[in-house]
Amino acid sequence: MLTGWMGRGCSMSLGDWGTRKIRFRSFEVDFGTGELRKGDRRVRLRDKSLEVLAVLLEQPGKLVSRSELRVRLWPSDVFVDFENNINCAVSQLRYALGDSAVRPRYIETLPRKGYRFLLDPAEISLTSDKSASGLLKILVLPFQQLGESNSEDHLSDGVTEEMIVRLGASAGESLKVIARATAMTYKTTCKSVAAIGRELGVNYLVEGRLLRTENRVRINASIVNVPDGTQLWSTSREGKLSEILILQRELADAVAGRIRLLVPSDQPFSSPSPHLTDPDTYDAYLRGRALSHQLTRDGLKGGISCFREALLKDPSYAPGWASLAASQALLGLWGYAPQKQVMPEAERAARKAIELNPQSALAHSALGTVYWFHYWYLALCEQEYEHAVQLSPGDSDVRWPFFVFLSAIRGDHERAIREARLTEELDPASVLICANVGWVYYWARRYDDAVAQSRKALEMRPDYLQAHYLLGASQLANGRSREAVQAYEKASSFHQDNYSLASLAMAWGFAGEKRRAADLCDSLRQKAESSYVPAMCFAVASVGLGDHDRVFEWMERAYGERDSQLLFVRASPAYDSLRSDPRFGRLLALLGMPPHSR
Predict the structure, then answer these.
(1) CA dist., res. 314 & res. 320, Å (int)
(2) Residue 259, Cα to own-chain centre: how many angstroms?
(3) Could you tell me the sign of the dihedral formed by the alpha carbons of 314, 317, 323, 327, in that order?
(4) With respect to CATH, is domain 275-355+364-386 assigned 2.40.50?
(5) Cα→Cα distances 512→28, 324, 498, 504, 515, Å
(6) pLDDT tens-digit series, residues 382-432
(7) Whether 471 contacts 451, CB under 8 Å
(8) What is this structure's pTM?
(9) CA–CA separation, 16 and 18 (whole Å)
(10) Which CATH class is domain 21-127?
(11) How far apart are CA 296 and CA 302, in angstroms?
(12) Which fold has domain 136-262?
């Protein structure tokens, strides 16, 4: 746990807001001076009136209860005449705004409940006197789960993920939210705020706790300023376990509102209603998310099982359908299951998710993957990927398929590299992102950069198959066939899959060891007698043997099998020796791709 944690009841300090300014209609409030301005008129607000205004501005259009104001404005160990103090603070604020309690334009009183700021979020603009010296970054540390079932912390992981999603949705161009995979690497960290700040270059941290007792839950969250380690603000929500989705959404919106006061943003703040479901459904969904994020065959299959369990309980739960679609698409994409089987299932799940929630970025991205690898509808794929990124620009899970597509299919390496670097900046500890950035370098013929990315990924996870593939392919393209052999042998030692054997055969062939390459081809043929071996595996191996006729024969079969690996032949340097052959041009035309320009 980081130092600086404070529980519910932490008071705010006007100094926390520095020189931030907020504009709404003809007013501007300056938190640095404590002034409310309208044209040339300036009114100095009392501290509590200014703090009430800050809380109301966080959640425009929403009820802010009197009990929340009490918690936010006065420490728990301070005893005051709350009713009189809050009434005076609101009255002074109304007077300064020229507002009326009877016919309110700004602050509405809801009797015995609280207050509501009547403006639309779009009418509120945020500025700062801070000079722009680059993007600001924020990291949501994994929430700690305390109390009952603290060994099964997927509930707190769900709160963490919701916080990241909400902050990402409300962040403008001046703020970047570190993505989930990187955030989760700090789950058991004992590092200081300063150390984390140096590692990731973040300006703010959000940290929190979840306490579960019987059928109740309490969630705390605080914002920490990284440069000096001070806590800027904290809040909490408490209720029944069955209300966990509402509680975590309210908490995330409160944090997002406070961050918007700290960091200028032109992004309209929107808070769509949470996708409500029962606790058992949500528990199964969270278990599925935790498993699928392992990015392994067993993890994806386990996640799919959990998502199906959740959807049996609640068939209208859109996030469950979206996550099911994404996991099934990855299962087929990485060859862990026959694409002809899982891609139609992924499509059905994605379309159901979009029917229930048209704004689901994950579902649109999964549908794009189906268009790409199942139907080969490349234009529709690009459309879905772009839409997904527009819906959730801070989500690395929907960004990486798009930059891979830009490089591998469109050949727009310059743009792909820009997108890849931005995605890696959002999620620097994700081995998936790291390896895919390397593939973009490989297709762009930047082999040294690709090798560096593969080694970086292998430092994160030594058994990550795609990183071994990337290292082997990059070394081979760089003329280092022996190093490529070593990489593919390592891949085969971790994963006895068909493409590892085929790639190793190609590497041995380029190293001049044709006999070894031929022996591996024989091994693939023997495997094909009892199990499915994709035709593209034989095409890859035949490239190393220099048998171009056999390469094109196997590619023709791969086309008949709708093997999606065929879609990468235009981008891959492994097939450079074939490009002058007229059959290669005819193959690209068959795939609907323009000739490759090197």
Answers:
(1) 9
(2) 19
(3) positive
(4) no
(5) 74, 45, 22, 13, 9
(6) 999 999 998 888 889 999 999 999 999 999 999 999 999 989 988 998 999
(7) yes
(8) 0.73
(9) 6
(10) mainly alpha
(11) 10
(12) Rossmann fold (3.40.50)
